[in-house]
From TrEMBL:
Enzyme class: transferase
Alphabetical GO biological process terms: protein N-linked glycosylation
Protein name: Dolichyl-phosphate beta-glucosyltransferase
Gene responsible for this protein: ALG5
Enzyme Commission number(s) from the entry: 2.4.1.117
Domain Glycosyltransferase 2-like: 86-217
GO MF: dolichyl-phosphate beta-glucosyltransferase activity
């Protein structure tokens, strides 16, 4: 009986090794070597207050504002106005960021959440760049917590630093409100993030993140993933470049209308996590110490 069990164990290990090699090969041959940074001609302009086309700036230009806020939006007619009212009201009270408030970049094709944020980042004017979700789940005044977290990381190497909003402190409460299946999916995703990509960050998926301009340029110019798991690759890239990262607890409320379909979205993100790890591991994707933005 024992020799049979040993043979089965060896066979199982061999099959697993073959499967891993096959998956790695597929991940390698299907990877694009460099991130796709092409911008359609119509995506180089926005309509100003006079309804005239005006050229968008570049992340490589010198900053002209203290803060840029990038909000990806797709079919957000109901949730976006509420979020924008809160954000603009807060920023106007601070009297810090000028009156040139909103610019809308209309993408020719759906690039995914990560692709949309990257286009916004590359068109930003701020010394610091905030990513914020259109649902307004995180209250905008919590930016002050991120700013403090960013400042506490000084001195910033090459002026690069990132502060990530985090909902990890709300985990016990969220478990009590979720089904066992969704809780299992959550823990499985967190394990894959830790095992394959990012160490030391408990909540990689919170959409409330503050980056210095230099950190945004370095990380987003190397980004490949454009769908929901882009946050993980973004932080993987940041850790590769040894960019200091602070994880900051923020207030968060679940807002109805999420585009995530629990099972299939988590399955897609799990696949993306595996591809991130395998493609960097096999050399299909490489991170260079210097990278120019197209």
């Amino acid at each position: 009986m024992a020799p049979l069990l040993l043979q089965l164990a060896v066979l199982g290990a061999a099959l697993a090794a073959v499967a891993l090699i096959l998956i790695s090969f597929v991940a390698f041959i299907t990877a694009t070597e460099m991130p796709h940074l092409h911008r359609h001609e119509d995506e180089k302009f926005f309509l100003n207050a006079r309804v005239q086309r005006e050229a968008l700036p570049s992340i490589r230009d010198s900053p002209t504002k203290q803060l840029s806020v990038v909000v990806p939006s797709y079919n957000e007619e109901k949730r976006l106005p509420v979020m924008m009212d809160e954000a603009l009201g807060y920023l106007e009270e601070r009297q810090k960021y000028g009156s040139d408030k909103v610019r809308v970049i209309t993408l020719v094709k759906n690039r995914g959440k990560g692709g949309a944020i990257r286009m916004g980042v590359f068109s930003s004017r701020g010394k610091k760049i905030l990513m914020a979700d259109a649902d307004g789940a995180t209250k905008f005044p919590d930016i002050e917590k991120l700013e403090k977290g960013l400042n506490d990381l000084q001195p910033w190497p090459d002026q690069m630093a990132i502060a990530c909003g985090s909902r990890a402190h709300l985990e016990k409460e969220s478990i009590a409100q979720r089904s066992y299946f969704r809780t299992l999916l959550m823990y499985g995703f967190h394990f894959l993030v830790w095992f394959l990509c990012v160490k030391g960050i408990r909540d990689t998926q919170c959409g409330f993140k503050l980056l210095t301009r230099e950190a945004a340029s370095r990380t987003f110019s190397s980004l490949h993933i454009e769908r929901w798991a882009f946050d993980v690759e973004l932080l993987y890239i940041a850790q590769f470049f040894k960019i200091p990262i602070a994880e900051i607890a923020v207030n968060w409320t679940e807002i109805e209308g999420s585009k995530l379909v629990p099972f299939w979205s988590w399955l897609q993100m799990g696949k993306d996590l595996l591809l991130i790890r395998l493609r960097y591991l096999t050399g299909a994707w490489r991170l260079e110490q210097t990278r120019k933005v197209n």
